[in-house]
TrEMBL record:
It catalyses: N-acetyl-L-glutamate + ATP = N-acetyl-L-glutamyl 5-phosphate + ADP. This is Acetylglutamate kinase. GO terms for molecular function: acetylglutamate kinase activity; ATP binding. It is found in: Cytoplasm. The gene is argB. Residues 4-244 form the Aspartate/glutamate/uridylate kinase domain. Belongs to the acetylglutamate kinase family. ArgB subfamily.
Length: 264
């Protein structure tokens, strides 16, 4: 029987609110099973870029990462945010250890190729990108890996990589060894039928239902990459995938209640 592993991804709104982040990390630290945390970047990178006069360009919610922007996101994601989270978890007696994909060659990426857009230093990853043997050894040591949204190509280049994708690909790669439950924690109760009505939670979403919701324009751009990556995980043998409200983590773990389950 496979051992249970939670892979939990948190995003910008939570990272930007220190009080909420503290409450979330308290709940995260209490999870008894094996666990991995993946985090995005919040507004800090954009704020720092503005202060430094580095223009930020976004296409379909994805950041174009030139060299100056790469320097900023590396400092903010793999530096300030990652170490802040690790320090807070240590305070809660959780043996967290912070990583970028470059550390110990844990996640190797390829520069994104696109027929029309040069995304700059943006890296794409697959299951083969993940050093699952070494990550499994870290987990066996009762360490809790905390991954930032920075990867590398083993040629000396760092890449900005979508944190939702990192969480999904880690879940897919590690599902060969563990019974993985992937949780996307964000500021909504789950996938909403009506974005203005927090009670309109859709209990489960299949690939077909996702296409219908997308076609009807009911999914705001922030949730699209989460759902696409969640579906990718389900299609690649990840045991369970949920989108839940960040404040409901403990309730979900203990009672298997709330949020939206992503199904085939």
């Amino acid at each position: 029987m496979k051992e249970k592993l939670y892979i939990i991804k948190i995003g910008g709104a939570l990272i930007d609110d220190q009080e909420l982040l503290d409450q979330f990390l308290e709940q995260f630290s209490e999870i008894k099973e094996k666990k991995i945390l993946v985090h995005g970047g919040g507004k800090l990178a954009t704020t720092l870029a503005d202060k430094l006069g580095v223009e930020q360009k976004m296409i379909n919610g994805r950041r174009i990462t030139d060299k100056d922007t790469l320097d900023i996101v590396s400092m903010v994601y793999a530096g300030g945010i990652n170490k802040n989270i690790v320090a807070k978890l240590q305070k809660k007696k959780c043996k967290a250890i912070g990583f970028s994909g470059a550390d110990a060659n844990l996640i190797k990426a390829k520069k994104r190729e696109h027929p029309e857009i040069d995304f700059g230093f943006v890296g794409d990853i697959t299951q083969k990108s993940v050093n699952k043997k070494l990550i499994s050894k870290l987990i066996k040591l009762d360490l809790v890996p905390v991954f930032s949204a920075i990867t590398h190509d083993k040629k000396g280049n760092l890449f900005n990589t979508n944190a939702d994708t990192i969480a999904s690909v880690l879940a897919q790669a590690l599902s060969l060894k563990y019974e993985v439950e992937l949780l996307y924690c964000f500021d909504k109760e789950g996938v909403l039928e009506d974005v203005d009505n927090p009670k309109s939670v859709i209990k489960s979403v299949t690939e077909e239902e996702f296409s219908v919701l997308k076609e009807a324009g009911k999914l705001h751009k922030g949730i699209l990459p989460k759902l696409e990556n969640a579906l990718g995980a389900v299609k690649n043998n990840v045991d369970k995938v949920f989108l839940i409200k960040e404040t409901q983590l403990k309730n979900h773990i203990e009672n298997h209640h709330g949020g939206t389950e992503i199904c085939l």
